[in-house]
Write a structure and sequence with these properties.
globular, 69% helix, 255 residues, three-stranded antiparallel β-sheet, Globin-like, mainly alpha, Multidrug-efflux Transporter Regulator, Chain: A, Domain 2
C-alpha cells in the first residue's frame, strides 16, 4: 500500500522537507504522484530510502549516494553486506572508546592507574568522519596528501599529535570567556592555524581557514565534538579564526 510523504517521514523519523529535497535532486522519486500533487511512496521506494539512509549514516554525501544507488552495477545485497561490516567496525571503535572513558573515570578517581597507551586506546586517525566534506571543499589532492602524511606516522606519533591537538582545544576552552579578538585568543588561534598547516600535509589559505571556522558552527557534528572541551568553544573558535584572518589580511595588504 502506497504511503503519503508525511506518513513516510513519521515512519523514518525524518522531515517532509528532507523527502521533498530527495525528490527534487532525483535521489528518491516516489513511484506515484496524485493529480492533486501528493507524493505516494511504494515498498520499493521505502527499500531505496533505507539504502540511502544506510549510506548517509556512514558519511557518504547525497551526491555520492545517488551515483552509487543508480549505477548499473549496484547490488543491494552486496551494499547491505558492506554496510553491516562498516557498522560493526564503527561499533567496535565506539566500544573501545567507551571502555577508555570508563577507565579514565576510574583513573581520575584514583581507583586505577592508566598507562599513556591506555589513555589513547580507541583513537584512530585513519578514520575521518569529515573526509567527504573536506574533499568537496578542498579537493581530493589535498585530502590525499593529508592522509598520506598521517599514514606515515607511527602509532606513538599519532597519539602525540592527538594530544597536541587536545592541548590547543583545552587552552582555547579556558579563555572562551574572553573576546575572540583579545591578544590571548589570537595567539592561541594562531597556534591552531600553524598546527593545522604543519601537520596534515595541506596548507590552509586564510580564506580556507576562515571557512573551516564557519563549519565549526554550521555543522552540528563539528560543534558537538569541539564543545566537548567547553560549551560555546566552537562558536568562540569560529569568531577567533575570522578575526585572525581579518587582522592578518590587513597586515599583508598594508604597504
Amino acid at each position: 500500500m502506497a504511503m503519503k510523504v508525511k506518513e513516510v517521514a513519521e515512519l523514518v523519523g525524518t522531515s517532509v522537507r528532507t523527502l521533498h529535497h530527495y525528490d527534487e535532486i532525483g535521489l528518491l522519486i516516489p513511484d506515484e504522484t496524485t493529480e492533486a500533487g501528493y507524493r505516494l511512496y511504494s515498498d520499493d521506494n521505502l527499500e531505496m530510502l533505507q539504502q540511502i539512509l544506510f549510506f548517509k549514516e556512514l558519511g557518504f554525501s547525497l551526491k555520492q549516494i545517488k551515483e552509487i544507488v543508480y549505477s548499473p552495477t549496484f547490488d543491494r545485497l552486496e551494499a547491505l553486506s558492506l554496510h553491516r561490516n562498516m557498522l560493526l567496525e564503527k561499533r567496535s571503535r565506539i566500544d573501545q572508546m567507551v571502555e577508555t572513558i570508563d577507565k579514565t573515570i576510574k583513573h581520575l578517581k584514583g581507583e586505577i592507574h592508566m598507562t599513556n597507551e591506555e589513555k589513547f586506546a580507541g583513537f584512530d586517525f585513519s578514520h575521518n568522519p569529515y573526509e567527504q566534506e573536506a574533499r568537496e571543499r578542498w579537493g581530493d589532492e589535498a585530502v590525499d596528501r593529508s592522509n598520506e602524511k598521517l599514514g606515515r606516522l607511527t602509532k606513538e606519533e599519532q597519539q602525540a599529535l592527538g594530544e597536541r591537538m587536545n592541548q590547543i582545544y583545552r587552552r582555547l576552552a579556558e579563555m572562551r570567556h574572553l573576546s575572540p579578538q583579545s591578544q590571548a585568543a589570537q595567539e592561541a588561534i594562531k597556534d591552531w592555524y600553524e598546527f593545522l598547516n604543519n601537520n596534515f600535509g595541506h596548507h590552509y589559505t586564510l580564506e580556507a581557514f576562515k571557512g573551516l571556522g564557519q563549519m565549526y558552527v554550521e555543522d552540528e557534528r563539528f560543534t558537538q565534538n569541539i564543545d566537548q572541551f567547553g560549551e560555546g568553544l566552537a562558536l568562540f573558535m569560529s569568531k577567533a579564526m575570522a578575526a585572525f584572518v581579518g587582522s592578518t589580511e590587513k597586515i599583508v595588504k598594508s604597504p
